[in-house]
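Support request, please re-run this one:
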Amino acid sequence: MIQFVSNRGGGAAVGFETAILAGFAPDGGLYVPTELPKISVATLASWKGKTYTEVAYEILSLFIPKSVISETELKQILADSFSTFYHPDLIPIYQLTSEEEVYIQELFHGPTLSFKDVAMGFIVNLFNFFLKRKGEKMTIIVATTGDTGPAAAHATIGKEHLDTWVLYPKELITEEQERQMTTITASNVHAVGVAGCPDGADDLDLLIAEMFADKDFKEKLNLSSVNSINWGRVMMQTVHYFYGYLQTVDKVGDALNFAVPSGAFGNLCSGSLAREMGLPVGKFIIANNQNACLTRIFTEGVFSKAPIIACPASAIDILIPYNFWRYLYFATGQDGAKINEWITTFEATGKVVFDKATFKAYREGFIANSISDEQTLATIQQIYKLEAYLLDPHAAVAVAAAQNLKAELTKGTKTLCLATAHPCKFPESIQTTLGLEKEALPITAKHSSVEAAKLLCQRGYNCHYDHMRQAIKHSMLAKK
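Re-run finished. Output below.
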């Protein structure tokens, strides 16, 4: 049976339920499975033609013992998790006509119109399932660059065993993203806008890590997180790689490239694990915006922090890609002590320079490219002009990176670009790019749920970065 351990090497192995509910491991590390199940090409071929939820069941049941969640229970959790999606196929594939062998995986048809819905509904339902069985309540805290927070907030509406706090950096997300959190009236959902964050949502991630390190506070609130620090999110995100592969390749066994708009490396970590499990991947294209944290890691061998830049693809305005440490654990032989050494060095100095052997090991199968704001917007304009298909800024970063790195891909191999958000969440970028008045935007730049939220009152908490630690803790304890 698969157990779960900290990628920093501390503490004992735990079972699936403990790993999910805890979020962080006791030593501050991220939970990882002691082994990854292997999926043969024959097994993969047998899944061709299955629906997304059917593929999800096949993969998740490899990690989740039936003694923990039965077949019937797991299938019901999956059905509930995707019942609010807008598209009948849940995750459709669109083939670009203006780019040879380039496809778009539309991951944005969930209730908050971002790919975070794909895993968030499942992980929140999983939490609620375990807590209901135990007769307990839990406080969830999440930091967001614009998409995770709304997904977590909507997924927890009315969940009687969960109280959810979503933290976001004021002025660094769009009004549409903010309203997806602040117009929720459910009494168990609380949005907190923090002004003046010098490093954006990375400051909020650090605050959350400090809260988990405060044992008294953590125990008082029975604290956990559904950010992609949680193994359940990363596990669930492996599914859309397998499903996208099966929907795109002509023959199972063919290699497929994936271009992924990347910030915290959670989505790509999931992809790398899918590859390790047996998915035939050609190249992973790491598509950064101008906050080139991952480009530095994969082209220079340097994990470092630089001043944040506000970009149109704001959800990947990330400086510290914490899920890289989870990936690195598997890429370098599952040596928790070594991971802990690197993390400790980074926490002390703000920089890690990897040795040549480590650099060679972890960059295998990855190529990276940072896309300027100008190229992001030009790519939106280009694709829309050529085929009236509208990319959001994040999908545009992926498509642009695939275009820039085409020479490094095996000729004739298809590339699947992950579209992680609906264009309607970024109206100013779309308006600027297409040169249209707001009223003249195409129908694909709008969505009824976002339009409805514009007419509602907003509620939530606001504080400043300088006093966020005491302010947020005070509010959370007061609501306990």
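Residues 93-113+231-451 form a domain with the Rossmann fold fold (CATH 3.40.50.1100). The chain has 20 helices and 15 strands.
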